[in-house]
Design goal:
- By secondary structure, this protein is of the alpha/beta class.
- It has a single domain, classed as Aldolase class I (TIM Barrel), CATH 3.20.20.70.
- It is 43% helix and 13% strand.
- The longest helix is centred in the middle third of the chain and has 16 residues.
């Protein structure tokens, strides 16, 4: 591994071998996502607690202060939208390696859709992206996307998709936490894994619990967005999750961090959609 690749990975994965990434790239296919309508304002109070941010070039250029940011993982795949949900896997590469260098990104990310009708296309996209980025010592993070088929979040599928991503040259893999059997997903993937999310839960403590469990089973960290910036107390969530990742806090200790931080953090206004529904009911 050349110096440039080592340096860029070191910007993302900290000296303790752990990482906390904050993705705000959801708009590339969802449009103005709730509580991410103004990405720059959303991430500003969270930057002190994350190791890198993941986003598209458009949001990077228009919403992120170049004098006050964190290492960038640039989302370089896209071309689909929620307007045609059945075609979400039909992504292409949207950004060149030269553009990545120009924007001083530390890494790039793209989605693969193993098992979909577009499997072949997205896996070749990954291979071609790796070919191009390796020329510049830019690490590629593969995202094992499932589109609308959430039932694919089991260990057998995630192990298959993660291993294929590593085989094709991804330096890091972002995949889902699945609880039972997750250690097999990690064991079968020869590159670091960060988790994209877990099962739907009803409390902060449950989020802390599956983040902690994923780390115990071999993940190096998280790439969590909505569980942080859609929360009523996003800074408290960020600090608590960071404590698990970089301070080896238990879920109970993370809950204490959350409660202590929450007490001094102003609750965010209700999300616009929820407010609109309440208004319509009266």
């Amino acid at each position: 591994m050349d110096w440039g690749m080592k340096n860029r990975l070191a910007q993302l994965i900290q000296r303790d071998g752990r990482a906390m990434f904050l993705p705000i790239d959801h708009g590339y296919f969802q449009g103005p996502t709730t509580r991410l309508e103004e990405p720059g304002k959303t991430i500003q109070p969270l930057l002190p607690y994350v190791d890198a941010i993941m986003l598209t070039r458009g949001i990077l250029r228009s919403c992120v202060d170049p004098t006050n940011t964190k290492p960038v993982i640039l989302r370089v795949s896209g071309g689909t939208s929620m307007a045609r949900k059945d075609e979400l896997s039909h992504e292409g590469i949207t950004t060149s390696a030269r553009e990545v260098v120009r924007l001083n990104a530390s890494a790039v990310s793209m989605s693969i859709f193993v098992g979909s009708e577009r499997e072949h296309e997205t896996l070749l996209n990954l291979s071609n992206l790796v070919n191009e980025c390796e020329e510049y010592d830019i690490p590629v993070m593969a995202v094992t996307a499932v589109g609308t088929e959430l039932g694919k979040r089991d260990a057998r599928y995630l192990a298959l998709a993660s291993r294929i991503a590593a085989e094709l040259g991804a330096r890091v893999v972002k995949t889902y936490y699945c609880g039972e059997g997750f250690e097999k997903v990690v064991h079968g993937c020869p590159v670091p894994i960060v988790i994209a999310g877990g099962p739907k839960v009803d409390s902060e403590f449950e989020v802390f619990s599956w983040v902690y469990d994923a780390l115990q089973k071999g993940a190096i960290g998280v790439n969590l967005g909505r569980n942080v910036w859609q929360h009523d107390y996003p800074v408290a969530m960020a600090k608590a999750i960071r404590a698990i990742i970089h301070e080896n806090a238990t879920p109970k200790e993370a809950q204490t961090v959350f409660e202590e931080t929450k007490s001094g953090e102003k609750k965010r206004p209700a999300a616009r959609k929820a407010a609109a529904r309440r208004s319509a009911q009266h």
